[in-house]
Amino acid sequence: MRSRVSMASLTSAVALGVAIFFTLYSLIPVTRGDEGNLSSLFLGTMMSCVMGVQVFTPALVRRFSLRLIIVASLVLVSVGALITGTVSGTPLLLVGAIASGMGFGVLIVAGAHGVALIVSPFRLGRALGAYGLVTMAASALGSPAGLQIALTFSSAVFGVCALIVGLLGAAFAFGIPGTVGKVTSKERTSGRKLDKATESIAGTPWLMLVVLLVAVVLLSHGLSSLPVLATPYGSAATVVFAVQFGSALGRGIGGEMEARIQARVTLIAGAILLTGGGTLGVLIAGGTAAITAGALIGLGIGIVQAISLHTAMQRMDSGRASVVWNLAVDGGLWTGGILWGLALTAGLVPATTLVFCTLLLATTAAVLPQLPGRSRRHV
Question: Which of 332, 351, 279, 347 has the alpha carbon at shortest distance from 36?
Fold first, then answer.
């Protein structure tokens, strides 16, 4: 019962932080779409900060506890959102990007690592699926709502709302026991020895992480440049909702598909959905086509994320797996944040999308022999 309360608290807290972050990811491209270079600079800075702090997060959890790290990172994300929403000059916008990026980088690694700390290994597969489903569902509802608030009222109103939501998430995090994740010096030494032994036996699934990175670049298209293409049809916020809601469903579907059928088939399905959505969104104009493309992109990335995270945690220590998986995700968001802003400025979004769709199919084909041919059932 205690573990269920802890999981609910962790999932609720992280979900609110994810909703704030993905609103920020779309906010500058959509509200200042005529400044593609600013969009690239803001997203590139934010994602650089996200990735820069992730490798230190497991050590921070061991030193200060999961609860304290979740609370501190949520405060940082929400303060960064407030700054971003209430300022206009580029230097101050970058201050908001740095604060939000650092907070989210710690939050997202600590969240996935926290699932493994709270639940037993036998329940990890489905727990990760449920965690991904809820956090992305919150983003699916929260980020379009935040974007719509900014478009209807102002970015400043969004910033204040984001601060309130972030502080609410920090309050939820107090449902996590203060001892979870915190270890003594002796236990930290033993943990490092165990990590080294695990690393020598298993190793990092690098090719799967490359597939994930390429897939997330296409997700970035769905969250930034695709909404811009849909803006003339009044569908920007709806496209973001379709991507995020599809991603939430994809996380749940991906976990169940991997448990019931071949892991290879699951990954192929995710890649096909992603490339189909990417192609549809740039070859057919119109709000309906953009929304459908966003939903397909979301479903595809959710499936790819589910199978890649489970694969990483099966082969590596959970803390290290969370780091490398999130680095791949955020590396794709960082690359995409810069790339799609430049592509919008140069009018090369269709060509760039088709190139990455082709690259995704090629890397997926390369990684298939490394996946088991039989299903890996969750207990």
Answer: 347
| Phi, psi torsion values for 234, nearest 5 degrees | 70, 25
- What's the domain count of the chain? 1
Rounded to 5 degrees, φ, ψ at 179 are: -90, -10
State the first-to-last Cα distance of the chain, in angstroms, to the nearest integer: 19
Residues in Cβ contact with 141 at an 8 Å cutoff, skipping those fewer than 6 apart = 19, 241, 244, 245
> What tens digit of pLDDT does each residue of 157-192 get?
999 999 999 999 999 999 999 999 887 655 555 555
User: Is residue 378, in this structure, part of any structural domain at all?
Assistant: no
The domain spanning residue 169 has which CATH number? 1.20.1250.20
Question: For residue 113, how far is the Cα from the chain centroid?
Answer: 14
Indicate whether 320 belongs to any domain: yes
**Whether 223 contacts 240, CB under 8 Å:** yes
Confidence band (pLDDT; 50, 70, 90) for 274?
A: very high
The residue type of 291 is I
pTM of the entire structure?
0.79
Closest by alpha carbon to 211, among 222, 203, 200, 219?
219
Dump the DSSP string for 76-129: HHHHHHHHHHH--SHHHHHHHHHHHHHHHHHHHHHHHHHHHHHS-GGGHHHHHH
Range of the domain at 22: 2-370
